[in-house]
Amino acid sequence: MRRLGATLACAATVLVAARARADVVTPPRVVDAPLPRCVKEERGIVRADVVVDSAGAVSEVEVVEGAAPFVEPAVEAARAHVFEPARRDDVPIAARIRLELHVPACAAAAIEPPTTPPPPTAPSKPRATDVALVRGRRETYTPTERQLGRADIRNVPGAFGDPFRAIDVLPGIVPTISGLPFYYIRGAPPSAVGYFVDEVRVPYLFHFALGPGVIQPALVDAVSVHPASFPGRFGRFSGAVVEGRTRDAPTELRGEGQVRVVDAGAFVESPLAGGRAAVGVGGRFSYSAALLSLLAPDVTIAYRDYNARASYALTDRTRVSVFTFGSFDYASQVEDGVDNVLFATEFHRVDLRLDHVGADRSQSRVAVTFGLDRTRLEDRRFARDHLLGVRARHRRTLGDALEVEIGADTLIDFYSGDLPSPYAVDRSEYQSAVELFSPRTDSATGTWIEARLRPGAGVEVTATARGDVFTSAGRVVFGPSPRLSAHVPLTKEVAFVAAMGIAPQPPSFAVPLPAVGFRGLPGGLSFGYQKSAGAEVALPLRFKLQAIGFHHSYRALRDFAAGRDRSDVELPTDVTTGSTVQAYGLEAMVARRLGERFSAFASYTLSRSERGSTRYLAAAVSPFDRTHVLQLGGGVDLGHRWRLSSRMVAYTGWPVLEDLASRLPTFVRLDARLEKSWAFRKAGSISLVLEGLNVTGSQETVGQQCDDTGCRRRTFGPVVIPSVGVEAVL
Question: What is the model's pTM?
Fold first, then answer.
């Protein structure tokens, strides 16, 4: 580690020395800001990120926030804006800024003054929209990254406006069972998928079973899925990474709230001290237990969460902030007069950060995270994990074509648990409990350097070198993680994208439980070898097509099935060996942004996941392989603030375990959403939302049991979730 640290330090010194003189960056200045055309409804506000090219024209518009009736005229007006381009040392450059466009009602169009965007200022924390970070295209950390913004998330039918549930509309995400938030992504099981909120690792992003996300939608700016070659600041997962990014501190009071049949939640945030500070608080409480007691008195499901943050600008370039959030989930069922706990877990996080934007537009962050995970075991016993994390990164632009980021992070887990009495269980069960729950300290330390080269004409190449050292019970293992990705425009409408990388991960359960892990890294690290390539195509009517072919290989993967001959979801994985998996296929999505007046999308995944061969058996299809996953959907603004949207989800069934050449029946469901909104205050709204997941009442087949009398299929559901809610946005 000392040698690696010295190498990174030397590399950083050389790169910084190569640009000893600080760049002078002048942001774009608006020259002409045409007024959006009016709409019949009340006036509204749309916020959008735009790319201003080196000639001062708007080359790209990405809606961040805004209601459907106002998005289309706002986009048209944004594209018509004319700027004096941004400059670095008097050289025109491309830059990304955020516009706020006021769309007038037709009756007021004659007196509505033109809206000019405020000049971009140094952001209070590093953002993808920063002037010095974008060169002619939306900054994506990986070319195959899929991102959903606020305007898209709200309009995904069946997601109930939840940012993290909305990701299942994307290609490459294969559900385990319909409605449950556990996914296979490119052959990797739920245990190999990492969840992060503002770079803070969390054990899960959803409440138990069919519950909503643990972060209030009002806090989330965008959600990204990195199926391969994720940014250097992420690691320790051999599959994919799901990342949620929170919104910047507000300049005016804002808030959102929801009241639904099963729960209620809200988040309110306000600036203080003349805009230098901001404080926000919110949470969610479920009263589903009371409703379930009427329908199923033997079943109890309860969940709640909280989110709060505060920030203060020490200077115009430095901001300190604290972000805390947590979640609690409980599910039980009464059998023979005994309340059996099925699931009881909680986690809490407190993240302290210091962000600084340098005069040369460099960005730095130092942060400390404290956390507690807790899971209830049998007989009122608990497993606990007190965690401490420290991370730091520094990003700097060196010239017009090179951007470099260096960083390091450490996560220490202090595990403990309540052991059963050795006289109450047999010897093997007691020894297993000792291995899992006796006190121990695990750690993971990583360093990385990431270079992003933009030689011009939209070409972008990102190279990352990351390495992690894992320790547990006296064992030390090193996991290298090199990554490479590229985006190369072939024509004005077509670009080639590719990514490859290696991703290590310590052993874990197939569905990870907070505070429960394996002592001593048994079987060593799992590794994912990721390769993908494809194309992005700009189509007429603002449709976009992305088609990606991939081949991922996994070694020592911990899954529901340890091998071809052991494929029962009820059996624990043999963590000492894991299994070898090959996953390959094609992902395609064509879409028009869901926030526009008319939207449509088609998402398709064609894939195959195969278990590796053993000494006695040849390679065979994975018992959790789904060959086809298809989604079709869209939405339409009906006028007078009515909006209707729906989607159809269909996927092939799992292979039949007794005969992997045949399949369980295909599953098809329909989700629908109807919204009526009313204007409230300057830019707010109140909405009545009728939404349903699986309104067709489809039942899913999850297995088959055969004996001398024949075969019987096991089914799940039908899981039908109706929702009636009132949402308010300030």
Answer: 0.80
